[in-house]
């Protein structure tokens, strides 16, 4: 890939090609929306060990000055995503915003401050109840709880049979969540219990409205990113161009089938963002 827009990988859909062309034509009005885990960072067995791909931050630092804004939209707490991403104090990333906990929290690179509302009471209740609850329903050995601050996640990736554990837990966890006014968001070998009314689509839509965005690119890898895909598709229906990118294709066909461009994981996403930055500068 070189410096010409046409050297960028071509989206397979007409809407995606239109979205990419619009972004190349009007970069200063364009917003780049990116999921963190699985898109900027490789998926690892222990989420606490997740770090941005080595090529991701250099690519973002090259791209951010060329566009209106780069928004990392994640289910993680904003501060954790900033730390694991290595986003703080990087020259070129002044236009970066992290929308954590599906938009409930926000970190702006310009100020380095996290803005966050009070915790939903249901999260505290479920936090206290969850260990005993998993034991009482005889949850598969190897499942474990991730503390996400404003949410809790039950992972099955380390279980003997991750898919069977996931299937067995889905309904009981949905009932537990509902009892405390929470909802369950399924993902790749993970079930997240969190407050309703927050999703990546809402977070992205509100941010795009606030920035008066034109073209938008959104890249994700998991079921939680479908809401953001829907937000971009809705904009497209209103005549606002957008490009949907899927990071990796094997695990989440629901996302890959709706994407305009499928890239094989975070390394390829970083390379694409870097090439996009180069195309915009040339």
In words, what does this structure look like?
The mean pLDDT is 93. The strands form two sheets. Strands 5-4-3-2-1-10-11-12 form an eight-stranded mixed beta sheet, with helices on both faces. A four-stranded antiparallel beta sheet has the order 6-7-9-8, covered by helices on one side. The chain has 282 residues and is an alpha/beta fold. A hairpin with a 2-residue loop joins β8 (183-187) and β9. It has helices at 14-25, 56-63, 78-85, 121-136, 162-179, 200-210, 226-237, 253-256, 266-281; strands spanning 31-34, 69-73, 96-100, 105-108, 113-115, 144-147, 152-155, 183-187, 190-194, 216-220, 242-247, 261-263. The two termini are 13 Å apart.
Tell me the fraction of residues in β-strands, as a range.
Answer: 15-25%
Number of H/I helices: 9
The total strand number stands at 12
Instruction: Assign an overall shape.
Output: globular
Poorly predicted sequence stretches spanning 5 or more consecutive residues:
none
Lateral strand order in the biggest sheet? 5-4-3-2-1-10-11-12
Structural class: alpha/beta
Spatial separation of the terminal alpha carbons: 13 Å
Q: For the report, how would you describe the main beta sheet?
A: 8 strands, mixed
Mean pLDDT: 93
Q: What percent of the residues sit in helical stretches (DSSP H or I)?
A: 25-40%
The sequence of SSEs as H and E is HEHEHEEEHEEHEEHEHEHEH
Radius of gyration: 19 Å
């Amino acid at each position: 890939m070189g410096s010409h827009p046409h050297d960028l990988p071509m989206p397979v859909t007409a809407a995606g090609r239109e979205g990419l062309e619009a972004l190349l034509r009007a970069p200063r009005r364009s917003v780049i929306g990116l999921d963190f885990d699985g898109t900027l960072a490789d998926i690892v067995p222990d989420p606490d060990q997740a770090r941005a791909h080595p090529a991701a931050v250099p690519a973002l630092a090259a791209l951010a000055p060329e566009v209106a804004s780069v928004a990392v939209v994640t289910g993680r707490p904003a501060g954790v995503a900033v730390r694991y991403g290595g986003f703080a104090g990087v020259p070129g990333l002044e236009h970066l915003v992290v929308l954590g906990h599906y938009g409930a929290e926000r970190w702006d690179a310009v100020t380095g401050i996290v803005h966050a509302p009070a915790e939903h009471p249901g999260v505290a209740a479920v936090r206290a109840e969850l260990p005993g609850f998993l034991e009482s329903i005889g949850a598969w050995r190897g499942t474990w709880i991730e503390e996400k601050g404003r949410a809790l996640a039950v992972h099955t990736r380390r279980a003997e049979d991750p898919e069977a554990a996931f299937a067995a837990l889905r309904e009981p966890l949905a009932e537990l969540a509902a009892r405390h006014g929470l909802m369950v968001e399924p993902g790749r070998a993970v079930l997240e219990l969190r407050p309703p009314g927050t999703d990546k689509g809402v977070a992205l839509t509100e941010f795009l409205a606030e920035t008066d965005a034109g073209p938008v690119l959104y890249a994700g890898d998991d079921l939680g990113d479908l809401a953001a895909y829907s937000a971009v598709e809705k904009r497209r229906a209103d005549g606002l161009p957008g490009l949907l990118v899927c990071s990796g294709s094997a695990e989440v066909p629901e996302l890959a089938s709706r994407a305009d461009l499928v890239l094989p994981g975070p390394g390829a996403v970083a390379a694409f963002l870097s090439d996009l930055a180069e195309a915009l500068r040339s």
